[in-house]
């Protein structure tokens, strides 16, 4: 029957691809997203359960996690892919609202989702695996993305703390840190050749990632083959973090 796997941001590019891959390996997938229609489209396609979840909101997260457990049983896997960039701008002029909005989704959201799912996994006593979607930007600055990169660096810290604190329950917590990936989040900027070219030039393997580059690694971290791996933030970046 596979495990119950919850994917936040499951209606989006990366989350949708991972939800699809988890279903293909036999997991019973809960597709959780702020955009319920997007979640329902993915869930319908893979035979999963769609739930509305605003990761910024304590009650919304608890309600969605409760519905997942109530309908499908104990959660074995969480992939937390919900995230936003929230525009771009230099730190000297970035509006405070933009900074707060990104932190609310990417940091508060990671805290609330990890806490809620970690709690039900610990209570069930069966262990589990949590995979956060970070960003190569959490390690490497790009002009105009400081607000986003700060939020992902905080996500990395939460990943490590959760790994340490949940290890006694047999729950592993890791993250993957992609460089740029072709998804609806990046479609707008990557459609502009003047933007795309310098992004590709930073990547030694000379191409933007696709979701197919990410999903197998997330599935590996979410499997027993990674039984002794916890607290890592794994770059999937075509070598971008090597610098040039
Ligand atoms: N695409 C990239 O280049 C790239 C690179 C590195 C990291 N990431 C990270 O990967 C993750 C997924 O990105 P993507 O490219 O698939 O983006 P996307 O915009 O295609 O999908 C993100 C999903 O998150 C959902 N979401 C947004 N706010 C939410 C909230 N408050 N509560 C619940 N769901 C919410 C959206 O509705 C959307 O379905 C994000 O965390 C992003 O930061 C993306």
Question: Can you describe this structure?
Answer:
The chain is an alpha/beta fold. It has one domain (4-233): Rossmann fold (3-Layer(aba) Sandwich). It is 47% helix and 16% strand. It contains eight helices and seven strands. The chain has helices spanning 13-24, 36-46, 58-72, 96-124, 146-166, 184-190, 193-201, 211-221; strands at 4-8, 28-33, 49-52, 75-80, 128-133, 171-178, 233-236. The chain has a seven-stranded parallel β-sheet, with helices on both faces. Strand 4 (75-80), helix 4 (96-124) and strand 5 (128-133) form a beta-alpha-beta unit. Helix 1 packs parallel to helix 2, helix 3 runs parallel beside helix 4 and helix 4 runs parallel beside helix 5 (146-166). The longest helix is centred in the middle third of the chain and has 29 residues, at 96-124. The radius of gyration is 17 Å and the shape is globular. It starts with a strand and ends in an 8-residue tail after the last strand. Bound molecules: nicotinamide-adenine-dinucleotide. Nicotinamide-adenine-dinucleotide binds at residues 8-9, 11-15, 33-35, 38, 53-56, 81-84, 105, 109, 133, 135, 178, 180-181, 183-186. Nicotinamide-adenine-dinucleotide (NAD) binds at residues 8-9, 11-15, 33-35, 38, 53-56, 81-84, 105, 109, 133, 135, 178, 180-181, 183-186.
Short recap of the structure:
With 244 residues, the chain is an alpha/beta fold.
